[in-house]
Amino acid sequence: MPPISFIAGIFATIAAAAALPVPQPGEIRTFKDWAAGCDNSANCEAVSFVPDQGGAGYDGWGGPIKIVRTAGSEDIFKIRFLFEADSMDRYTMLIDGKLVDTGPIVQGDYAIEIVGEDAKKVANAIISGNQLVLRGPEGENITQISLAGSSAALRYIDQKQDRAGTITALVAKGKKMFKPSPSTVPVITVDQWEAAKLAPDTSALVALAEDSKCKEDRYGLVEDQAYPLGKRGQTYRALVLISCGSGAYNFSSAPYIGEFREDSSEGWTFTPAKFDRQPSWGGEGGLPLLVNAGWDEKDQTLSSYGKGRGLGDCGNAENYVWDGEAFRLIDASAMDECRGAYDWITTWRAEYRKLEQASAAAK
């Protein structure tokens, strides 16, 4: 008979799963040379594109802008510029030839990050402008950004955050006070099993691949992988990633859950991994497919990162956590347009905690 702690863990996981909504990532909208989107907490982002023909032109493009605004009462507001800083230490920003801002350039993910009230002042200039030019300390061009569509993108954020008609709106300004809507990020309870190293051997993986739907898509160099998921009682589990086709920069994998029982002579058995929301690469209704998959053994998180083209400026990315029975979406980002916006928009986020942490918090 299984120990009481095992039974309690299973029921706690089932109850937590039933309480969670099915993940519904937010929509990304395109407005001329900009895109905007929000996650499930109405935290929103707007990103600039390489302009269409007839816009600001391609010659001066050196990287996009991302505008970030949270929906809560803290109202975090940031404007970020993405480019290679090299040895430059200061910048000058002009919109339609007028000086708007100047400041330091730093080494890091975002060479320029403007925050708070300074960011809002720059955003107001962006809304009413046509072209933004960013220059280095010697007057050299860093990037040129078309502002066509920026006003519509930021108006969309006003609407999604219920700011339209309030004093906090960027575009749809009004006189009403803004009252942030309470937004709860889903919290996933994960039931990790006792650590164990047992995983299927090569012969078991080859047999699984030969019996899978991926058989016809396996060509060239293939690499199947198996990772232990732990042990409970006499049962071991493992995550198996079967190579399922590849291209120039995308490598597909079909995820399976392997199970081995010490009291059985059957050996390893395999079933397709379950997801609360199907990975974007495979689509709904078919075999789950991951692309450029990554696995974090410590946290038992699984990633998929599908690039629409080699530059990485479009595609879909998801991260999942193993809750003991299925993979649950903890964050997602995407970019539909392949136009230079390689910092994608976040469309979903959730938090997770281990079963013992959830039990302690409930006491």
Summarize the model shown.
With about 375 residues, the protein is of the alpha+beta class. Helix content is about 15%, strand content about 35%. It is built from five helices and 22 strands.
How many strands, what sense, and barrel or not for the largest sheet? 6 strands, antiparallel
Order of helices and strands: HEEEEEEEEHEEHEHEEEEEEEEEEEH
Task: Determine the strand fraction and express it as a percent band.
Answer: 35-45%
Distance between the termini: 28 Å
Radius of gyration: 24 Å
Helix proportion of residues, in percent?
A: 10-25%
Overall SS class = alpha+beta
Spans of at least 5 consecutive residues with low confidence: 1-19
Q: Can you offer a commentary on this structure?
A:
There is one protein chain. This protein has 363 residues and is an alpha+beta fold. The chain has 2 domains: 4-23 and 190-362, no CATH class; 28-160, Invasion associated locus B (IalB) protein (Immunoglobulin-like). Helix content is 16%, strand content 36%. The protein is built from 5 helices and 22 strands. It has helices at 4-19, 116-128, 150-160, 202-210, 355-362; strands at residues 28-31, 34-38, 44-48, 65-69, 77-81, 90-95, 98-104, 112-115, 131-135, 141-146, 187-190, 225-232, 235-246, 251-261, 269-272, 290-291, 294-296, 301-307, 315-322, 327-335, 345-349, 351-354. The strands form 5 sheets. The protein has a 6-stranded antiparallel beta sheet with strand order 1-2-3-4-5-8, covered by helices on one side. A hairpin with a 5-residue loop joins strand 9 (131-135) and strand 10 (141-146). The longest helix is centred in the first third of the chain and has 16 residues, at 4-19. 39% of the residues are buried.
